[in-house]
Amino acid sequence: MNRVAAIASAVATLAFADADRAESLDMNTPSGIELTLRSFRGGNLDVRQVYDHGGSGNIGDPKSFAARSLNDIQMIRAAIAVNKPLVHQLNARGVLLGNIVNADQAADGGITVYYR
Q1: 3-state secondary structure (DSSP) of residue 104
Q2: pTM above 0.70?
Q3: What is the mean pLDDT of the chain?
């Protein structure tokens, strides 16, 4: 009986892990991050300055990242602009809307905003 319970537990754990992963695949797509940024109210905001804005392709460097298209960047900025509490949080940290070049959502619901 313990063996059956252990197998059932393992299968359930794998099923939940796959469901969580599937949900996280959409959260950083342009439309997914846009919806998140428009409604973000959390306090888990990380702000990172980047120097390479994706130009060199060396995404292993901690100050670089995979660049988004100009259209995606404009979409991110527009989504942030309508979220006044988020704009105030970013301004308090010295981040201007026009300098934002990317945003990502973490699995815990936090947001990382990249600016130049």
Answers
A1: strand
A2: no
A3: 76
